[in-house]
Every structure is written in structure tokens, then in C-alpha cells.
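Page 42, continued from yesterday. The earlier attempt failed because a stray header line got pasted into the input along with the sequence. Redoing it now with the clean sequence only.
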Amino acid sequence: MQELADARAAFAPSRGYLNAATMGLPTVRTVEVMQEALLQWQAGEGCPVAYDHAVSAARAAYARLVGVPRGHVAVGSQTSVFAGMVAASLPDGAEVVVIAEDFTSVVFPFLVQAPRGVRVRQVPREKLAGAVTTGTDLVVFSLAQSACGCLVDLDAVLEAARRHGAMTFCDVTQAAGWMPVDADRFDLTVCSAYKWLCQPRGTAYLTVRPEVADRLVPVDAGWYAGESVWDSVYGPEMHLAQDARRFDVSPAWLSWVGAVPAGELFAALPVTQVRDHDVALADGLRERLGLPAQQRPVVTVPDVDGRVSAALESAGARVASRAGSVRIAFHLWNDEDDVDLAAQAVRGVSAGTPVLR
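This time it went through. C-alpha cells are written below.
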């Protein structure tokens, strides 16, 4: 698979980095273009119009990745900003169903709407589809859970929402980049791109089906949400973009310069190849630890006392501690040597002899 090999070569070697679910690594080209942009800025040659071209290119690449027209994609900074807009757009007294253990950036924005009667029901991931009723206005969920990588029963959730007339708002942050995502299956999706998509932090995307766009209030609208961006920097009249750009949040320019190489890399790469590579490594680790295959790139190992995390770090691995477990995430830059490193460190804890670097 030459495409996969070329994509892997786009990253600088980083032995033992098993933390894509926290923060993806930049491509070599991302680092280069951001360094170039910094030097141009230092020399007084920074150009907002050129930065705007970068935002447009990144938007187009993401649209290709998730299978929607670019006019369905808004750009912003973080998941919580877009979730806050969606929450603020709900009518008073609306009912929202969320996953209880979900990442709080897609839960808190709805909980804070309680003073105006918005009701949030928090249910276990496995019971999400069954919790949707005729009184549900919006179903909010991450496609893959942050703490463990577990996937929702997507077909069941979408069918329940359709049957009861509820909108769907899906956070694909922990999925886009390693698994196929068809954003058109949802009313709304959001993605923070600094994890599996390896873009700088400060880049996030919202997809909006045109059928539901009028239900959203662009509460963060500024000059960048205008139909003509450069004619929208002063009032008094407001002419917002006719497509999803009306929901744009003014971009942190240099982050978007760095987003383009990574975005175009993932948009051009068959995502099934990424999935197969990542999952094979994760399931290879599970096999070495005597665990069943899970068909996802995240492995969690119970670690209530921190010994497993300490052993992995001492062995040269970078991992994360989440919800009482160590979270180990494999992505493009990882290989079998990383699997061996992690397996030896974890098994060493069980044997009472943690591996040292």
C-alpha cells in the first residue's frame, strides 16, 4: 500500500508516541509551513488574504474527507464553541439526550442552558438509542468516546432519531482521521482537528445539513461569517454567508496555515488503510496482553494506582491516563516496535518488574 507508506513518511520518527487521542503529531510539512509563516510575520510580510486562502484550502480538504460539499462546512476554533452555538439555538424547554460519560465539551454547553428550561438527559452509551423518545429534540454524542475509544451503535442511534424526529449532533473528533466518516448521515457534526487529523490546535470544523441550517443562530457571527468577508469588517449592515460559512468563527491564522498540509494528506489517503493500520497495531497489543480484539485503535488498561502509566513512561512511551485507565492510541507513525515496547512495559507491571528506558 504505497499511499499508506507515503503518508507514514510524512511524519518525523517519534518512537513510543502512543497518544494520538490526546494530540496528534504534526507532519513535517506542517512544521515547515508554520515556521515559514512565523518568519514572514516577523519580517512584516504576513498577509491576511493569504491566510484566508489557507482557511479555504483546509475547509475544502475536510469536506472531501467527510464526504460533503464545502458549503456545508464551517470553521472555528474548538468543539465547545460550536456546541455552544447549537445549544444556544435550541428553543426554551427543549430536551437533549447525551452520553453520560462523554467528553464534557459536548455536554456542558447544553447543561448550562438549564435556566431557560433546556432539559438534558444523560444516559450510558449502550442505552443511547433506546433513550430517544418523541419528546427528544436533539441527540448529542461522540462517535468514538474520548476515554476509551468505544464506538456508539450508530445505525441504532440514527434510526431512533429519525423515527422520533430528533436532530443529531455528532462529535467526530475521536473518529475522523482513522475511520470512515460520512458527515451527511448526521444533521450536524463537529470535529476538533488537533487529534487524529494532526492539525494545530485551534482548528475545528462544523458540518451542517442545509435542511437544518435555519434552526441555528450564528451567535458567534463576526466579519468572517459575512457573505463577502472583506466587505464585512464594518457595519452597519449585516449580510451573512448563505451557506455554512455564516457559522464561521474568525480563524487563528497561523493554525490554519499548518492545517493545510495535514488536511490534504488525510483527504487524499484512503481512510480504510489508516483504519486497518491503526487497528492492527492496537489489536496486536491486545493479543500480547491476552485481551480480545476490539477493532479500534485505542487500548485501555486499568491503572488505578498509576503503575502502568509510570512503567510505560519509563520505557519511553507517551500515553494518557483517563478514567482510571491508561489510554494507548496507535496512529500512522506507529509500528510493531511500538507494540513491543508497550506490551513489554505493561506485562512487566503484572510481573512486578516494570521495564525501564
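Notes: The chain has a mean pLDDT of 96.
Reminder to self: strip header lines before submitting.
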